[in-house]
Each structure stands twice: as structure tokens, then as C-alpha cells.
Design goal:
The relative contact order is 0.20. The chain has one domain. The two termini are 26 Å apart. By secondary structure, it is an alpha+beta fold. The mean pLDDT is 85. 34% of the residues lie in helices and 34% in strands. Helix 1 packs antiparallel against helix 2. The chain has 3 helices and 11 strands. The radius of gyration is 18 Å and the shape is elongated. The chain has a 7-stranded mixed beta sheet with strand order 6-7-8-10-9-5-11, covered by helices on one side. It has a 4-stranded antiparallel beta sheet with strand order 1-2-3-4, with helices on one face.
Length: 166
């Protein structure tokens, strides 16, 4: 089994810290007002649940073994068949991607995105560097960002994927 990490980019870290800071300031302001005394605890609880949920479903690392790619999340995983899939390194994979549904930078770039160049794609990444596009045998597309993209591609090829041009 080969394991590949995906490090959090500075962009993701700053976005996360800024969001948390804004939420804390908003809660402090809300608790300072009369209306906030009753709604504040509920709103605060919802925001903490959203933050926690976002973190728990964020991508942590990738594993390749037995002809499968497993995207490990903080809580749970997603598995994909590599046999018959094509992989390519694509430095521009994240450029121009628009979020359709998912997380667009708070702890990760996870979810369904659209790119004019690639089309609809599932992203499982913590940064927008080192883009790797995987087109599964059924036509579904994944965009990943392993810290070592060349080693990741080599491992995928050894498990039944084929190399394609970006």
C-alpha cells in the first residue's frame, strides 16, 4: 500500500483562520445585543457544528493498493477503482474551477466543481498545487493534490491506471 499526503496550503490555512476570526467577532457582537442573549447560544452551536462537520469530511490523504484509490478523510473514506482509469498531472487543474456543491477552501477543496476545461469534477484536495486528474473507467473525473504527484502517478500506474495527456 502506498500512502500520499495532501498538505494544507497557506491559502486554506489563512481562509480557515480568517473565517474563524470573523465568526468569533460576529458572536461577540451578537452576544452584546439584547436579541443575541436568546439566539446567540443556538447560533454559536450551529456555527461550531458547521466548522466541526467541515473539518471531519475534509480530505486527509490518499492510499493506493489492490487496484484501488482510497481518499482518506478525517472521518471516513471514499474508494475508487483504478483499473481502466487514466491519470495525468495537470498544473492548471484547479484554475477556473467553480464550486457547484461542497467546500471551496475551508480546510479543503472537497466536493463537486465545474471547470470549462475539464467539465464536472469531484475534488478531494487540501491545496491547489500539484494537481492530478483521474478519469475513472465510467467517465467520472477526480482532481487530487498529492504532495508528491509524480510518485502518486507512478503508484496509480502500477495498480492498473494508464497515463494520459492533461
Amino acid at each position: 500500500m502506498s500512502t500520499f499526503s495532501t498538505s494544507m496550503s497557506p491559502h486554506v490555512r489563512w481562509l480557515g483562520l480568517t473565517t474563524v476570526a470573523i465568526l468569533v467577532v460576529a458572536l461577540v457582537i451578537l452576544f452584546g445585543r439584547d436579541a443575541g442573549q436568546s439566539a446567540g447560544p443556538y447560533l454559536g452551536g450551529v456555527l461550531v457544528l458547521i466548522l466541526g462537520g467541515t473539518y471531519l469530511v475534509s480530505t486527509r490523504e490518499y492510499e493506493i493498493s489492490n487496484g484501488r484509490l482510497v481518499v482518506q478523510k478525517v472521518l471516513g473514506s471514499k474508494s475508487f477503482e483504478l483499473r481502466g482509469a487514466s491519470v495525468s498531472r495537470d498544473a492548471l487543474a484547479f484554475q477556473g474551477m467553480t464550486r457547484v456543491f461542497g467546500n471551496g477552501g475551508f480546510f479543503a477543496f472537497d466536493g463537486l466543481f465545474y471547470s470549462r476545461r475539464i467539465g464536472f469534477v469531484r475534488s478531494y484536495a487540501r491545496n491547489r498545487d500539484n494537481g492530478v486528474v483521474v478519469v475513472l473507467a465510467g467517465g467520472s473525473k477526480l482532481v487530487l493534490s498529492p504532495d508528491q504527484p509524480d510518485a502518486f502517478i507512478t503508484a496509480a500506474l502500477a495498480q492498473g491506471a494508464v497515463l494520459s495527456a492533461p
